[in-house]
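protein under study:
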Amino acid sequence: MFRTSMAISPSPAEFAPLLFAGDWKAALDAAADLGYDAIEMSVRDPADPAVVSCDTEARHRELQVSAIATGQSFYSDGWSLTADDPGIQKLLERRMRRIVDLAAPWGAFVVIGGVRGTLSGSDGERVDQYHRAVAAVRRYAEYARSLDVSLVVEPINRYETNYLNTIDEAARFISEVDAVNLGLLPDTFHMNIEEVSLAESLRSAGDSVLHVQLTDSNRLAAGQGHIDFLELVEVLREFDYRGYLSAEILPLPDSRTAARQAIEFFRAL
């Protein structure tokens, strides 16, 4: 019922929970050998030769790309949806459009996760920054819609950002953006920190859920921590979710072992 995906980075990355970061050939080998349906690419610059090569070789191997994560623009470059500098906003929008272009042939989702940055300054400044993020995502979504691409907002825990921490907060943000091609990406690692009930929060999101990352409580492969994934999968079945179960996990004890642990758990669900 569910397709499987693992999160990789074709280039070296500051963001830790990615498999085979900087070694796209080993990533594609593992994905094919282990039987994954797709890879989820974390991308800084879509024109990076490693990204281009990974994209091309994935086609040759008949692997899909499930989603493209965009957080490296913030983690590596400091570009975010909340940036006060109009020049940075223009640079980020240009890059996000190129990422949408990369996603379009695959029908892959574009993730609004770490790229949102954080809110800072006075209460008034934070309100302005939040509205700036809403407006930016609305523009990205409008462009993405022209290419039949959907965006997904990922709630991220309070220790990594100070807004859109919960599914409910992300749902309100999506409502404010008001774009038909914008949905939710629940990540169970973040949910385990922020949600009172993982199952009820997921149930409340319903069919707005377009993509799911199953990551355990310790950010390892599902089954290596204490999250009750059977309960969550039953909720996904309730609203007939037919998307990917994706592993955005730490490469521990090593990338290939983590990838194997994740897909073995996914298959057992």
